Amino acid sequence: MAEPSSGPDLAAAVTLLGAAVVAVPLFRRWGLGSVLGYLAAGLAMGPSLLGVVEDPEQMLHVAELGVVLFLFIIGLEMEPRRLWSMRRDIFGLGLAQVVLCMALLSWVGVTLGYSLATSLIAGTGFVLTSTAIVMQMLNERGDLSREKGQHIVSILLLEDLAIVPLLALVAFLAPGGSEPVTGAERAMSVAVGLGAIAALILAGWYLLNPLFRFLATFGGREVMTAGALLVVLGSALLLQAGGLSAAMGAFLAGVLLSESTFRHQLEADIEPFRGLLLGLFFLAVGMSLDLSVVVDGWWVILISVVAFTVLKSLGIYVVARLFGASHAEALERTVLMAQGGEFAFVLYSSALAVGLLDPRGSAMLTAIIVISMILTPLFVTIHDRWLRRPETRDDSGAEAPDGLSAPVLIIGYGRFGQIASQVLLARGWSVSIIDTDTDMIRVAGYMGMKVYFGDGARLDILHAAGAHEARAVLICIDKPADALRIAEIMKAEYPLVPVFARAFDRAHALALIRAGVDFQLRETFESALTFGGRVLDDLGESPEEVEQVLEEVRRRDQDRFAAQITGDLTSGRELLLSNLPDHLRDAARAAAPDGLAGSLQSVSRSS
Q1: What is the phi/psi pair of residue 299, to 5°?
Q2: What SS3 state is found at 522?
Q3: Residue 178, class by beta-carbon neighbours within 10 Å (0-12 exposed, 13-18 middle, 19+ buried)?
Q4: Burial category of 463 from C-beta neighbours within 10 Å (exposed 0-12, middle 13-18, buried 19 and up)
Q5: Which of 17, 157, 240, 365 is most buried per CB count within 10 Å?
Q6: Are 253 and 297 in contact (CB under 8 A)?
Q7: What are 578-602's pLDDT values in tens digits?
Q8: Strand ranges inside 325-471, DSSP E
Q9: Residue 257 and residue 212: Cα distance in Å, rounded?
Q10: Do 436 and 479 touch, CB atoms closer than 8 A?
């Protein structure tokens, strides 16, 4: 008789996938979101109910890779200069929220009769918001790239950094544990963590781009995918070995690759793994809820969930208002971040190991965290239905771009886009127009223009708007960072489509040129020249002299442009040549003058 197979438990895998496939679409149809669908499916499949999976903790460790991959993709959207611009939010707003919430939540345990040390650790665990849940919900709501979403991301980054001193706090508060840990040992742990960050930054600067250039040249698509996973998991492992969080390592790796030419390819390669593992993480969190612990200590758990949630909500709202957020934004941030998070599991495990928590207390605190995570999508749904200000999008008559095919795509229909479209329409060219300003879309409808609602910084929207088939794409929006992002996506995904961009100032124009746009125009340059010329004419200068002066100003401006681009081309070219074999390097250097001259001519034309 054949022996039973000892391979993977396919029945359990099929059951889990089936539960997710059924629950998630149903919950999204009911307006409750995909996160709650995963959590509910996990609770049903866990040991407390159907028992399909007996050891959810083991699955949770594997599924945490989904959070790691998600943070890597978020990092790809955070260029270093953008992250640096968020430093005040990270270390100001984020630190203020963590400290105030710790002070408020620590008194819940004291009120219930626990020691101050135990109460401090219990409350601190709840302060650490669920990065996975909040990031996923921000992504689904389209808020990740908005200012209010960036404030939340800043706070989450600070909380990820805070796990290191919090783990040190656990060791310090441990019964009899404060004496063996010397100041030198604490300083060494900090140095190891900083060393891990420094090593990752150096590797990102000097190794990552050459690695992916090599893989793109000599490897296949599957090797590029393997390389992307290697970078993400290797970065996570490096920072984890340095005492930091694995998610922080993945995030920093993404930031270091955010300006790489391979960024969009990496995002496409990682996305399927991220989605699957993140869903598995939510399933595992649902399975981790031990209903027997909830039944035995239901009153303590009920009081704790309510008290922790209310006090943390109070702290979040107060800090948000103190840092200038409107009532609506502060309330939305409160609803999104009022739960505990996955890092609390790490903190409670460490406290259990050193004797600050007993097994029953650790299980109850874990149940409190899981229940708060399950409740979050419900709170968000209530907020969106009854407390959130209604969106104006439905009233504007705006439609999403779907299958547009006009030869010219205009992104942004403000003053600049309106004038540009008039020139094209006057010659009989059909245009497709997308914008995110619902008021402008409504006004355009009154004027007989059809403008679709769509964010040009999203690849799927660009594709739906017909960017891949367009003969020209015009970037006419007034936000420099978004315009640059659209230009980078267009040139990475549709390099043969001509891109014309509105530039805000000289620095923005240079950035657009580096991104590869075919033509850029500073929004005030030509109008200011015309304005100055009209003044000279009114002062009595002859038309010939006025025209001569204007051409001289244009020439000097082009010369300055060319000088700046020359410096960029020279430094970038030398870096590229250093990676070539000797015989190819010599040939490339011999062709330098022509190549450089051609580049400068193109700059002069675009200016």
Answers
A1: -70, -40
A2: strand
A3: exposed
A4: middle
A5: 365
A6: no
A7: 555 555 555 555 544 444 434 444 4
A8: 408-411, 431-435, 452-453
A9: 10
A10: no
**The two structure tokens encoding residue 4:** 């039973």
Residue 560 in tokens: 């300055």
CA distances from 158 to 154, 193, 241 (A): 6, 15, 19
Name the DSSP class of 182.
-
Domain ranges of the chain: 20-176+188-385, 395-606
Q: What CATH class has 395-606?
A: alpha beta
The position carrying tokens 């879309």 is 441
- Rounded to whole angstroms, the Cα distance separating 301 from 367 reads 8
- For the beta carbon of residue 551, count every other beta carbon within 10 angstroms: 11
DSSP reduced 3-state for 8? coil
Place of tokens 């699957």: 276
> What are the CA-CA distances from residue 415 to residues 9, 54, 428, 436, 477 (Å)?
61, 61, 20, 14, 9
Positions of the chain with pLDDT under 70: 1-10, 12, 31-33, 58, 60-64, 67, 70, 77-79, 82, 142, 145, 164, 176-183, 185-186, 219-221, 244-245, 259, 261, 263-265, 274, 388-403, 564-607
Half-sphere exposure of 281 (CA within 13 A, CB side): 24
Rounded to an integer, what distance in angstroms lies between the CA atom of residue 454 and that of residue 185?
54
360 vs 293: CA distance, rounded Å: 8
Q: What SS3 class is residue 211? A: helix
Diameter over CA atoms, the chain = 108
Return the exposure string of 441-452: e unless at least 16 CB atoms fall within 10 Å of the residue's CB, then b: bbebeeeebebb
Nearest to 254 by CA among 245, 241, 264: 264
Question: Cβ(340)–Cβ(118) under 8 Å?
Answer: no
Ramachandran region, residue 448 (left: φ > 0; alpha: ψ -120 to 50; beta: rest):
left
Tell which residue, 408, 415, 463, has the closest CA to residue 437: 415
- Range list of β-strands (E), 304-451: 408-411, 431-435
Q: Which two tokens stand for residue 354?
A: 């050193």
Percentages of the chain per state (helix, strand, coil), in multiples of 5: 70, 5, 25
Distances, alpha carbon 351 to alpha carbons 166, 171, 173, in Å: 11, 8, 9
CATH 1.20.1530.20 is right for the domain spanning 20-176+188-385: yes
Question: Which tokens hold the place of 304?
Answer: 């704790």
